[in-house]
Design brief:
The protein has a single domain (2-176), classed as Rossmann fold. Helix content is 33%, strand content 22%. It has 6 helices and 11 strands. Helix 5 packs antiparallel against helix 6.
């Protein structure tokens, strides 16, 4: 199982790193590709990251899912990149998992793949009247997985793992990170 995360400057660090971490714990390979032309990128909170590769150096057909973290201007950079929109449309047509969190569902909206679907996002980032908007941490509708933002990052990542057939692994990870413990 292989997934591809596309990313640029201004990505939301918690959403990106949590998703990478949880999926790798579930046994899912995650390759992170920059769309900027440089493997070195800066997060929204100025945390620097070196990606695995560049979008132009990756065979996007070799993946089972596309991961799109939020954060600004990352979500808008991805939304406005024709290569990203082409990949989203191709993945959707093939029924591959498309996962976007926080502001990143705007990318799925631009590609035209979430109309009338159950989705969530950071409030105001998409036209909520064009979808069945849910105020939940994460939701799946067919091949589309969306998350609300930083507060839903773990739920989002676990739901992606389950969507990729890693149900038992996701449950084991959830328990292993003590995510089932209540708040006081």
């Amino acid at each position: 199982m292989k997934t591809l995360m596309l990313i640029s400057n201004g990505f939301e660090e918690i959403e990106a790193i949590t998703t990478i971490d949880i999926l790798r714990r579930c046994g899912v390979k995650v390759d992170v590709a920059s769309i900027t032309g440089s493997r070195e990128i800066n997060g929204a909170r100025d945390i620097k990251m070196v990606t695995d590769t560049l979008i132009e150096d990756v065979d996007v057909n070799g993946y089972d899912a596309l991961l799109l973290p939020g954060g600004l201007p990352n979500a808008h950079n991805l939304r406005d990149d024709k290569r990203v929109i082409r990949i989203v449309k191709e993945y959707d047509k093939a029924g591959k998992v498309l996962a976007a969190i926080c502001a990143a569902p705007c990318i799925l909206e631009r590609a035209g793949v979430i109309k009338n679907k159950n989705v969530t996002s950071y409030p105001g980032c998409i036209d909520e009247s064009a979808v069945n908007y849910k105020k939940v941490k994460a939701v799946r509708d067919g091949n589309i997985v969306t998350g609300c933002g930083v507060g839903g990052a773990i739920d989002f990542a676990l739901l992606i793992a389950k969507s990729l057939g890693k149900v038992e692994e996701a449950e084991k990870v959830r328990k292993g990170i003590l995510y089932d413990w209540p708040l006081e």
